[in-house]
Design a protein that fits this description.
The complex is a heterotrimer.
Chain A lengths: L1 H8 L4 H22 L9 H11 L10 H20 L15 H22 L3 H32 L4 H10 L8 H15 L10 H4 L9 H26 L8 H24 L6 H29 L3
Helix pairs in contact in A: 2-10, 2-11, 3-10, 4-5, 4-10, 5-6, 5-10, 6-8, 6-12, 8-10, 8-12, 10-11
Chain B lengths: L2 H12 L7 E5 L2 E5 L2 H14 L4 E10 L2 E9 L5 E9 L4 E3 L9 H11 L2 E3 L26 H4 L1
Parallel strand pairs in B: 2-5, 6-7
Antiparallel strand pairs in B: 1-2, 3-4, 4-5
Chain C lengths: L6 E5 L11 E7 L2 E8 L7 H6 L3 H9 L6 H16 L5 H29 L3 H22 L8 E2 L2 E2 L5 H27 L1 H7 L7 H6 L4 H5 L7 H4 L20 H24 L17 E9 L2 E9 L5 E7 L1 H13 L7 H7 L4 H4 L7 E3 L4 E3 L1 H14 L4 H14 L1
Antiparallel strand pairs in C: 1-2, 2-3, 4-5, 6-7, 7-8, 9-10
Helix pairs in contact in C: 2-3, 4-5, 4-11, 4-13, 5-6, 6-11
The chains are: A mainly alpha, B alpha/beta, C alpha+beta.
Chain lengths: 313, 151, 412
């Protein structure tokens, strides 16, 4: 019981994932800044931001639905932290591994978006409402290629459990190369989930100020920002586990370090992507996802089905 | 004959009453004074027939008893005609030119706010540039309006 | 929200996309803009009235502060009108130096715009890059004039500072660097897919509409209207310099971007010619303190478009009337037209695409403060008192606080 509490609250749960999330935010911001020819923040900046926000007053609009407004950020943070517990970090099996955990992780990752929607909607600010409607509209566009991308890898492994997937790829070395297209699709769709350029439409500051977050301040806003950081870690970890499933047979410490490196690699890719593109418009984003990404995802699934049918028979 | 002279000749042929009101200031600058009663036909002729298709701006002037208005019309070759007219301060009504130049709307609002001109035919809209609660009958660019006394 | 109901969102007076206070009230249907209600005037500072109460020399510095970006444009435009009234023959060297500063200002303004445009479409990398390169031209301006903005270079009858061969060398070097960078931006702007996607087809103003709505500057030129005061109505040294008027027939924001980046190349061309052909001689003639009665209209191609100043002199040392028409005012009607039936997401870039400068647009009078309820003017002291009373009602009483402080001090 104590052990379980430790893993939920300290490692690899809340505390670890929060600290790791903040470091990832720092790395993301630093890379983004260096690529833009800026100096970038010092290493403690995300922590300092968090502490500052936590110390500030929560201002809740009079017209807002108090409970919904307060609950949404906590709900979002809880969901992403929980999702992290299902991802294997240093061996093939995560703490709470079961058959179908990949689906759970994906669903838990959807919750923040819904929470942002609810928080934005019930804050009753016009900007927040437009932002939250955009979040939701966007969800329907990127979720499909995201799921299909991850599905393709699982399909090849023939399992809905992360443990089985990793086992399969450990047995079939270099098979994960076949999934590179799926990896690209999932990574790009994942930018939509993280609401980063080119898909930062819901919080495009020049249009809707801060989108769903417009009315948030103080502690609640700190939780929202932490949620986004942790979401980036969890998403990158999921991608790393599904698409870069090697090295889990190493001794736990090495496997863990390797896994962290993989996560950082994916985070760097995200930073790079958001440096080199402009924000799309909502209609263009939906077109892009449905007309371009979904067919590509289908192609990946087709490839995997063929491999499964011919090579693995 | 240079361009400015030919513009003058052309206009005189059409509107003989403009005789004596011409002033060719320099190359590409002509100023013409016209009474309010004839203003519209001269304005339309210059804008449409002579292709002075760009209204640079409308300047308002406080001329003591009267309010003066200068319509700066330019053509593609860079020539500008300053078409001047004036109206008594007692009843400062001029007609809108937004029918010919939609872009003139904001210039006319300026005249309304700052000089107290009444522009006939100007559509309803926001004030420019003064605030909505600026008192009526205070027109800052008139000479008798002194900032400090009114403040 | 996605029903047929329209709703209005305020876009300003304070909004992240606007660098200056103006209000656009947008009627939205879903993400589509049904109509825009523009309210200008928040930056109204009473410059035209103030200019009438100051001498010509003071006015130069006042008018330079109409706008922080195109300060040289306004100052030069005003001075040209005054010089025309006073019949001054400005030395050629002065005209060339004015032209040089004008083009450097255009370079800095266009680079600034490029960055802002990048920011509006969420492409912050472009913002960071172009603003970094803008520092090069800012440094040169500081080297030549002593200031990064509001150069204070002009005076009636000429310019106030000469430039020496050393400065010419440095400027040429900087222009080489900038040209290199600009070529890169042209490449980025014309090839990067997301930029093209966000810019093309947005904020369309056809050739006829541009003419009809009296658009000026790059906004007009991007719709194929060949309207450039530098070529049409040459001032300063432009009559002796060869350059092309850049036009484009895309008619949209993309076209405006292309026009601006290509204009940068023309500016470098002009700067090089000016520096090569810089005539020797004095840099100013003596101007009388009293300007004889007369009037003049001066036009100037500011980075944002045609700037118009009208000056009327009455024989004293103060002007009778100064009228300023900044380029943004001429383009604001076009914005209304551009936004119709577009998406909310296009709004920032469409507004930014005319390179709006609202502090230029609003000038004129505002010396008094008004109590809105009974339409009577109140004085500054009254307003001061009013604010103290108002805060007292809210429970913040500074008089009480002051007393407490005094008592505490006494105790010490």
């Amino acid at each position: 019981m104590l052990g379980m509490l430790f893993s939920i609250l300290i490692f690899p749960g809340l505390l670890f994932v929060s600290v790791f999330g903040l470091s990832v935010e720092y790395i993301d911001r630093k890379i983004y800044a260096r690529l833009q020819n800026r100096l970038g923040p010092p290493w403690f900046q995300p922590v300092a931001d968090l502490i500052k926000l936590l110390a500030k007053e929560d201002i809740i609009p009079k017209a807002a639905n108090q409970n919904m407004f307060k609950l949404a950020p906590l709900f979002a943070l809880t969901a992403v932290v929980t999702a992290f517990l299902y991802i294997p970090l240093w061996n093939k099996e995560s703490l709470f591994s079961f058959n179908g955990d990949i689906i759970v992780v994906l669903y838990l990752l959807t919750i923040p978006t819904l929470a942002f929607f609810i928080g934005g909607w019930y804050s009753t600010s016009l900007y927040a409402r437009i932002g939250s409607v955009r979040s939701l509209t966007q969800l329907f566009a990127y979720e499909v290629p995201l799921f299909m991308g991850i599905l393709s890898s699982a399909l090849l492994a023939g399992s809905w459990s992360l443990k089985e997937i990793i086992n399969f790829y450990a047995g079939h070395n270099w098979f994960w190369f076949f999934n590179l297209l799926g990896f690209a699709i999932t990574l790009v769709s994942f930018l939509g989930k993280l609401e980063k350029t080119p898909f930062d439409i819901p919080e495009a500051e020049t249009e809707v100020v801060a989108g769903s977050f417009t009315e948030y301040s103080g502690r609640l806003f700190a939780f929202l920002r932490l949620t986004l950081d942790v979401e980036m870690v969890v998403g990158s970890a999921l991608l790393a586990a599904v698409f870069l499933p090697f090295g889990f047979s190493l001794p736990p410490v090495f496997a863990f370090v390797l896994f962290m490196i993989k996560i950082l690699f994916i985070v760097s890719l995200i930073s790079l992507l958001r440096t080199i593109v402009a924000r799309l418009r909502m209609d263009q984003m939906i077109d892009f996802c449905w007309k371009f990404m979904v067919p590509l995802a289908f192609l990946q699934i087709l490839i995997n089905l063929i491999i499964k049918g011919i090579i693995l028979r | 004959m240079n361009k400015e002279e030919s513009i003058k000749e052309d206009l005189l042929k059409k509107f003989s009453y403009l005789d004596g009101t011409f002033n060719i200031v320099r190359a590409r600058r002509i100023s013409i004074t016209v009474g309010l009663e004839n203003f519209n036909e001269v304005f339309v002729y210059i804008a449409k027939q002579m292709h002075f298709g760009h209204l640079c701006t409308i300047t308002g002037l406080d001329e003591g008893e009267r309010l003066g208005f200068i319509y700066h019309l330019a053509d593609e070759s860079g020539c500008v005609i300053n078409l001047k007219t004036s109206v008594s301060k007692d009843n400062p009504v001029i007609k809108t030119v937004t029918g010919y130049f939609p872009g003139a709307e904001i210039y006319e609002r300026e005249l309304v706010d700052l000089f107290g001109a009444k522009v006939e035919g100007l559509s309803e809209g926001n004030r420019y540039p003064l605030t909505d609660d600026w008192p009526l009958e205070q027109f800052p660019l008139r000479k008798d309006w002194k900032g400090r006394e009114n403040a | 929200m996605h029903n047929s109901e329209e709703f209005k969102i305020p876009f300003g007076p304070q909004h992240p996309a606007l660098k200056e206070p103006e209000s656009f009230s947008v009627a939205l249907k879903g993400e589509k803009i049904m109509g825009v209600d523009i309210r200008l005037g928040y930056n109204h500072r009473g410059i035209e009235k103030a200019a009438e109460e100051r001498t010509y020399i003071q006015d130069i510095y006042l008018i330079e502060r109409v706008c922080g970006i195109c300060s040289h444009a306004h100052a030069t435009c005003f001075i040209q009108a005054v010089e025309e009234i006073a019949n001054l023959v400005v030395p050629k060297r002065a005209l060339y130096i004015r032209t040089l500063i004008a083009e450097l200002e255009r370079v800095h303004s266009h680079l600034l715009w490029l960055g802002v445009a990048g920011h509006e479409i969420g492409f912050d990398t472009l913002l960071m890059y172009s603003w970094r390169d803008r520092e090069v031209v800012m440094d040169i301006l500081a080297l030549l004039t002593g200031n990064r903005v509001n150069y204070g270079m002009n005076t009636i009858g000429g310019v106030r500072r000469d430039i020496d061969p050393e400065q010419i060398q440095q400027t040429l070097k900087a222009v080489d660097i900038l040209e290199e960078r600009t070529k890169y931006y042209i490449e980025v702007a014309t090839q990067e897919t997301t930029i093209i996607k966000r810019l093309s087809g947005v904020g369309v103003v056809s050739y006829d509409d541009a003419l009809r709505l009296d658009a000026v500057g790059p906004t007009a030129r991007a719709s194929g209207v060949k309207r450039d005061i530098r070529a049409d109505d040459p001032y300063a040294a432009y009559a002796e310099i060869s350059f092309d008027v850049i036009t484009d027939d895309h008619c949209d924001v993309y076209g405006r971007t292309v026009v601006r980046v290509k204009e940068l190349m023309e500016s470098y061309k002009i700067i090089r010619q000016v520096l090569k052909n810089l005539p020797e001689g004095p840099i100013a003639v003596r101007a009388p303190r009293m300007i004889p009665a007369g009037e003049a209209l001066s036009r100037y191609e500011a980075p944002r478009g045609e700037d118009v100043h009208y000056v009327k002199a009455n024989g004293t040392d103060k002007p009778e009337r100064v009228k300023i028409r900044a380029p943004t005012l001429a383009n604001i009607q076009a914005v209304k037209h551009m936004l119709k039936d577009r998406y909310l997401a296009d709004m920032p870039i469409v507004i930014a695409a005319i390179d709006p400068c609202f502090s230029c647009t609003d000038r004129l009078v505002s010396l008094s403060h008004i109590d809105s309820r009974d339409k009577k003017t109140i004085t500054w002291p009254e307003l001061h008192q009013f604010s103290i009373e108002w805060h007292k009602q809210q429970g913040i009483d500074f008089t009480q606080l002051n007393k407490q402080l005094e008592e505490r001090l006494k105790k010490c």
